[in-house]
Design brief:
Elements: H1 5-43, E1 49-50, E2 70-77, E3 80-87, E4 92-93, E5 99-100, E6 112-115, E7 119-120, E8 126-127, H2 133-144, E9 148-152, E10 173-175, E11 180-182
Parallel strand pairs: 1-6, 6-9, 9-10
Antiparallel strand pairs: 2-3, 4-5, 7-8, 10-11
């Protein structure tokens, strides 16, 4: 049977690019700031939050760092990710040109991880870029401790259902600029 994920990824990337183009720069900035407000109740009690640097048409979670300038950011470590504390403006191009912390930045153990995605379903199924980095990192962290994985998405990235493989880690929440989805309540 053919894997349905690659063509779905291509469609979702195109759909996301079109959505962002239609919003324009001012609309995107407004949505990014709204995302920070939507996430505020969940993030307020966190001791360490892992975020990421958005690429291309991804929803940028940068405004979350306005209240917490020192966040943990992912760095490719072999086949998975580790998370390191740093300021957003110190990120530099790393694996595949993705902005990441320097290798001498302090290691972190986040209790909340903001996860980029191409698509997400209400049950927490996430479709990522296809490298499995976040799935492996989330699985490893969940073996050691309790964490909350929050998918960061434009509203148009929410789908009723997505294909899921056994190794795909589910999200606990999905945050968009307009609302939060409690994935556990949809399983």
């Amino acid at each position: 049977m053919d894997d349905p994920k690659p063509p779905l990824r291509a469609r979702l990337r195109a759909h996301r690019r079109a959505h962002v183009a239609a919003l324009g720069p001012v609309g995107c900035l407004t949505a990014e700031r709204a995302l920070a407000d939507v996430l505020s109740p969940i993030l307020s009690g966190a001791s360490c939050i892992a975020s990421h640097a958005a690429r291309g048409s991804e929803l940028d979670p940068r405004w979350i760092g306005a209240a917490r300038p020192l966040l943990a950011y992912p760095r490719v470590a072999g086949e998975t990710l580790d998370f390191r504390l740093c300021h957003f403006d110190t990120l530099r191009p790393g694996h595949r040109g993705i902005a990441e912390p320097a290798d001498d930045a302090p290691l972190a153990s986040p209790d909340i991880v903001l996860v980029p995605l191409l698509g997400a379903a209400p049950d927490g199924t996430r479709l990522g870029q296809g490298g499995g980095f976040y799935d492996r990192a989330l699985a490893a962290m969940r073996r050691d401790r309790s964490i909350i994985a929050i998918g960061v998405a434009w509203d148009v990235q929410l789908l009723p259902a997505l294909p899921r493989d056994p190794w795909d880690e589910r999200l606990d929440w999905i945050a968009t600029p307009t609302h939060l989805v409690n994935c556990a309540s949809n399983r």
